[in-house]
Amino acid sequence: MPAIALAALKNWSAAEELFDICASSPGSAASAIQMEALKKLAFIQSIYHGKHDYLCTIVQNEQQLFTNIECSEISAELSADGTVSFSDPPVKFKKTDVDRVLAQVQQQDSLLVRLEKGTKNI
């Protein structure tokens, strides 16, 4: 791992960046490599900054995520195997809104038909 070599050379900021990239790489589940990178990131941050910001950031992000779920800004489902799936909340339309948009589309359609007929005569 290049980050370990950078840490051995006391290039703390570059090592921190590489461990951060590895630990926060997207995926459907955290891998063992990501967990090791997270541990090493906390260690590097403790040396470099005197504290480990990454774990604090994870806790803050987790709190924000739960807040978004509670406010229905994000939908989440927990499957039987413990996997969490996220999706946008279902969109709800009122009948009056749908009717209004449909009327606007029909007006635009008739305007386009008239314009098309007018250009064919030219």
UniProtKB/TrEMBL annotation:
Organism expressing this protein natively: Suillus placidus
InterPro entries membership: COP9_N
Name of the protein described by the UniProt record: COP9 signalosome complex subunit 3 N-terminal helical repeats domain-containing protein
Pfam families per UniProt: COP9_hel_rpt
Superkingdom, taxonomy of origin: Eukaryota
Domain called COP9 signalosome complex subunit 3 N-terminal helical repeats: residue spans: 6-55
